[in-house]
Write a structure and sequence with these properties.
This protein is α/β, with parallel strands linked by helices. The protein contains 9 helices and 12 strands. Keywords: DNA-binding, Phosphoprotein, Transcription, Transcription regulation, Two-component regulatory system.
């Protein structure tokens, strides 16, 4: 895989769900080549707890597990989350499973055994999906690949990575509130986010924006302004 694409994946958290220890260890070691933040679970119940705590951007899950299948786990995720990129691993090509996967808005499924060629193809799909420009409002477009804002198809504004990530998440949460806790988890990672640091960050970003698309929600967080 291209070095630039590898860099795109490094800071993305991924969760691997597989109940067979030997298989899971092999898959996790493979994923660590692409990702710095790899979580693992041996059951659907454990997977959902990790999902709630760490909110991985990608989930790679087996369908059949001893204490309940992966589809039940994914159903719980999809009740509240349609953005996480979900890949299902299966040893079966049963039509019943395929129908369930389609109905649950699964992004991809891979027949076992997992190999690097298949994994590369799916990860490229993820990157390309996330790289599409985002329209924040009528005259303001966020180019995720170039990390730039384009204003009225004329003016170009360069963004730092954290600024780009913030606007991207704000867009993904446009119908709800991006909370302070989510901002700390998504943008500050393992560092502590002080209220002063967040206020300074938002102030500097607003100063860059030709249109203020960041709406403050007192005591809660921020949301995308509607025009």
């Amino acid at each position: 895989m291209d070095k630039i694409l590898l860099e795109e994946l490094k800071n993305i958290p991924i969760l691997c769900v597989e109940d067979e220890d030997g298989i899971r260890q092999i898959v996790v070691e493979t994923l660590k080549y692409y990702f710095d933040e790899v979580y693992e679970a041996r059951s659907g119940e454990e997977a959902f707890e990790i999902y709630e705590d760490y909110k991985p951007k990608i989930i790679l899950s087996d369908i059949q597990m001893k204490d309940g299948d992966g589809i039940e786990f994914v159903k719980k995720v999809r009740k509240e989350d349609t953005n996480t990129f979900i890949i299902m691993l299966t040893a079966y090509s049963n039509e019943e499973y395929l129908v369930d996967l389609i109905n649950l808005n699964i992004n991809h499924f891979i027949l076992k055994p997992l190999n690097l060629k298949k994994l590369n193809e799916v990860l490229l799909k993820y990157i390309n999906l996330k790289a599409k420009p985002i329209t924040l409002c009528k005259d303001l477009v966020l180019d995720l690949q170039k990390r730039e804002l384009i204003y009225k198809n004329e003016e170009t504004i360069f963004l730092r990575k954290r600024e780009k990530d913030f606007l991207q998440i704000l867009f993904e949460k446009k119908d709800s509130i991006l909370t302070y806790e989510e901002i700390e988890l998504e943008l500050w990672h393992d560092k502590h986010m002080t209220s002063h640091a967040l206020k300074s960050f938002i102030k500097d970003l607003r100063h860059k924006l030709p249109i203020n698309v960041i709406k403050n929600v007192p005591q809660e967080g921020y949301t995308l302004a509607k025009f």
